[in-house]
Specification:
The chain is mostly helical and 305 residues long. The chain contains twelve helices and no strands. This is Lysine exporter LysO family protein. It comes from Acinetobacter beijerinckii CIP 110307.
Length: 305
């Protein structure tokens, strides 16, 4: 139910921006187009801040960091390469990007800004944790406002209908297959600590840490809930880095690695690194994976193998 509510809010925000856009004054539209590029860095600061907050509220975070990092890294890379291989086979032209010195330097510049934003968020989180301030941060309303702005921009963007084809559905399918294959590798490494169904379930969060942490705690244990939370936080960060490093070259693969976050947090990076044309791809992939994530987590946790 929670996933449907969040998706409904996102749909309302982007629809509101899309249909209000023609009625906005020229000055407001120019202002929106001017501030949009900065939103990706604001969201990065919020992600890093939430990560430090999460670590501060988890008992013995050092013990659960290694499996969380391992699962997050392998599932992100697995999704990326499964999607890349799939499109190499079924649609070779879709993975072709333009290589130029200008694009390469621009990518390096964006990566540098991304790391700076992450560092700012981490420093802010550490300062808050070390002080006596009791602060909780929720970036959801910031995301909803950003998605509204994306809706405004989409109203002035021309799209064809090719993104509705079955090829677009391969992006979330590749995320699922890549995550499952990565889980088998992770099980070989972590089999003395966790069952295969638990590792498979941990791979199904797709970056949606606000859902997975709570769901694992309710269905299994607080320890696995903490691992799920950190896994999806790290997966979001890895997806952002992949987006900036390779999104301009392999846009659909980068979107696949972003998982459920491609419809909200990393949507800013999709627009900036992959191009506005791929925003609908990201929205569809994110919606599908957001709907599947709680169902797949529940399914794998209930299986015993």
């Amino acid at each position: 139910m929670q996933s449907f509510i969040l998706i409904f809010q996102i749909f309302i925000a982007i629809s509101l921006g899309y249909f209000l856009a023609p009625h906005l004054s020229k000055g407001i539209k120019q202002f929106i187009f001017k501030i949009l590029p900065f939103f990706s860095y604001i969201l990065l600061v919020s992600v890093a801040f939430e990560l430090t907050q999460a670590l501060n509220h988890i008992k013995n975070p050092i013990a659960i960091l290694p499996p969380a990092l391992l699962i997050a890294f392998t599932t992100s890379i697995g999704s990326f390469f499964i999607c890349l291989i799939t499109y190499k086979l079924i649609d070779h032209q879709s993975v072709q990007g333009k290589i130029s010195l200008h694009l390469f330097l621009n990518a390096l510049k964006n990566i540098g800004k991304a790391f700076l934003a992450l560092a700012v968020g981490i420093v802010l989180g550490i300062l808050v944790n070390s002080s006596e301030l009791q602060m909780t941060f929720n970036s959801w309303y910031l995301l909803v406002f950003f998605i509204f702005l994306i809706g405004v921009e989409l109203a002035f963007t021309q799209f064809d209908r090719s993104w509705l084809s079955w090829k677009v559905l391969m992006v979330p399918v590749a995320a699922f297959v890549g995550s499952c294959l990565a889980s088998i590798l992770n099980y070989l490494i972590l089999s003395n600590q966790y069952n295969l169904n638990e590792i498979l379930a941990l791979a199904q969060g797709y970056g949606w840490y606000s859902m997975s942490g709570i769901l694992f705690t309710e269905l299994h244990s607080a320890q696995l809930g903490g691992i799920a939370l950190l896994t999806d936080l790290f997966r979001e960060i890895f997806a952002i880095l992949l987006m900036y490093c390779l999104g301009w070259r392999f846009p659909r693969s980068a979107i696949s690695s972003a998982g459920a976050t491609s419809m909200d947090v990393t949507l800013a990076m999709v627009k900036q690194s992959c191009g506005t044309h791929y925003v609908p791809h990201a929205m569809m992939s994110g919606i599908i994976l957001s709907l599947l994530a709680p169902l797949l987590i529940s399914l794998f946790l209930n299986l015993k193998f």
